[in-house]
Amino acid sequence: MGMHEITALLRDNIASAALAIVAVVFACMLVLTINGVRLRNPFRRKVSSTELRFRNVFGMMGEERRQALIDSYCKKYKCNREQAMRHALEERDRDARSWR
Fold this sequence. Notes:
By secondary structure, the chain is an all-alpha fold. The protein folds into two domains: 3-35; 49-98, no CATH class. The protein is built from five helices and no strands. It has helices at residues 3-12, 14-35, 49-57, 63-77, 81-98.
């Protein structure tokens, strides 16, 4: 079957061809979604559970403000970034419990 015959066949059945293409694209998207395939960035660093919780708890703050909060806890407790986030979370939890 030559290219001319294939194009003639597609021209005659354009609706069927379009439907088949849409079905294949939909099936591919469904498979990717079900399998949870994501683009993996090899340069993306692993995020600790502390940092995830910190981002969730202080999510209403902008990124700049969150970094300033971490920096202030680093200076206050003379600790690293991870420990500073833990201190901020602990202090926030204590504060939340005091209002109950």
